Amino acid sequence: MKRVGLIMDFWDFFWLMIWTFFFVAYLLVLFQIVADLFRDKELSGWWKALWILFLIFLPVLTALVYLIARGRGMGERQVETVAEARRETESYIRDVASASPADQIASAKSLLDAGTITPDEFERLKTKAMA
């Protein structure tokens, strides 16, 4: 008796994995394109809306055309965004690292005087700053 059901052989599973990989890669490309559209300051809102419409109705063709026509600018905007995030992170690290224990204690004291923190919290912050 032949068994019919949801049994998968190796090749069915293999092709499922291949198609899943391509589908996920395609979704990542679409998300990158949409993010790039909203990141681009030079493109007007009408052009952005037109690109989005084409991405909805002709997604594969539009994605290929977008990558060919605007791929270089897409890469430049991505590099610019990453560089800006890096500058902000480094600035934050410098600000946090440059605060001396005396500055931290003075800041905590002003918070205590303003009634924002309790004396127990002030002592904890003071102990942490001294460590």
Q: How many DSSP-defined strands? A: 0
- Residues in β-strands, percent: under 5%
Global shape:
elongated
Rounded Rg: 27 Å
Q: Note the main sheet.
A: none
Fraction of residues in helix: over 70%
What does this structure look like?
With 131 residues, the protein is an all-alpha fold. 83% of the residues lie in helices and 0% in strands. It has helices at residues 10-39, 45-57, 59-98, 101-114, 119-130. Helix 1 runs antiparallel to helix 2 and helix 1 (10-39) crosses helix 3. The chain is elongated, with a radius of gyration of 27 Å.
Topology:
Layout: H1 10-39, H2 45-57, H3 59-98, H4 101-114, H5 119-130
Helix pairs in contact: 1-2, 1-3, 2-3, 4-5
Task: Pick out its properties.
131 residues, mainly alpha, 5 helices
In short:
The chain has 131 residues and is an all-alpha fold. The protein is 83% helix and 0% strand. It is elongated, with a radius of gyration of 27 Å.
